[in-house]
Amino acid sequence: MSNLKVAIQKSGRLSEDSLRLFKECGIKFNNGAKKLKAQSSNFPIEFLFLRDDDIPGYVEDGIADIGIVGQNVHEEYQKQIEVVKHLGFSRCRLSLAVPREEKYSDISFFEGKNIATSYPNILKKFLDTKGITAEIHQISGSVEIAPGIGLAEGICDIVSSGSTLLSNGLKEVETVMKSEAVMVADSKLSDEKRVLLNQLIFRINSVLEGKNNKYVLLNAPNDSLDKIISLLPGMRSPTVLPLAQEGWSSIHSVINEDDFWENIEKLREAGAEGILVVPIEKMIK
Ligand code: ATP
Ligand code: ZN
Questions:
Q1: Which residues of the chain have pLDDT under 50?
Q2: Which residues fall within 8 angstroms of residue 63, CB to CB, at 6 or more apart?
Q3: CB under 6 Å to ligand 1: residues?
Q4: Number of neighbours of residue 206 by Cβ within 10 angstroms
Q5: pLDDT tens, 226-280?
Q6: How far is the centre of ligand 1, averaged over its atoms, from the C-alpha of 12 (Å)?
Q7: Domains located in the chain, CATH noted
């Protein structure tokens, strides 16, 4: 059987989480330092370690079958490839920033100005939708120093906490796009490779679902069971087991991470006690 070839960033902000994801999917491989390739010992997958900017092109050309990149890189390179899965890590945004001392009221600030960025296509599209014409200077790194050296009046760059902007005397003024890591795939994959990709996505879904949910065990008096069951619908319905103590039950269920604290409060109000919350490694609905 031919291998599914997966392109992953060689070293950078996507690398560690990308590799962890495959490990959590039970895919074993040995990625020794400075290797360009690695072969899994228990799944027909081969890893190619590349610069993230090269990944969309390699996937389009079929050198790699799938890859992991930020949505920002995917959109910038505009290759004919498909996004097959949002992965939830490397969340960041692409933003416009200007020197802190500038008076900024709205996007018209940028009319006729020079803006430095590594994302000229995304920026151009954004400015077009806002009806702004600006001079876009493409530079490949250290964009944040451009205003300081007189190259541009503003920049468009990746921001997560904003600390890099701050330390370069800049302030964020507009969000151009939000980004997270995505899995992209060659749209011309063979049927055989599609099968492998679907198996991989099934595993990824079960890992991501597990992370988004918690297993909850609690004790409650029997007269509050109905209320508690309505708060904990679980996957199909919760498990209810009698406790040795008369009139009490133990309830086991699954709750979503997003609703966690609110739900716990409501459960306590409904009479639940002895609440245990346990991480879930994999979840298959
Ligand atoms: P390469 O050498 O592979 O070209 P790079 O310097 O272009 O690497 P990184 O800085 O490693 O890229 O970022 C890779 C991706 O991670 C970015 O395209 C973006 O999607 C995401 N990213 C960048 N900065 C952050 C951040 N501060 N927080 C979260 N995600 C980020
Ligand atoms: Zn890059």
A1: none
A2: 5, 7, 48
A3: 9, 12-14, 51-53, 70, 72-73, 90-92, 158, 160, 179
A4: 19
A5: 999 999 988 889 999 999 999 999 999 999 988 889 999 999 999 999 999 999 9
A6: 6
A7: 4-89+180-189 (3.40.190.10), 92-178 (3.40.190.10), 213-279 (3.30.70.120)
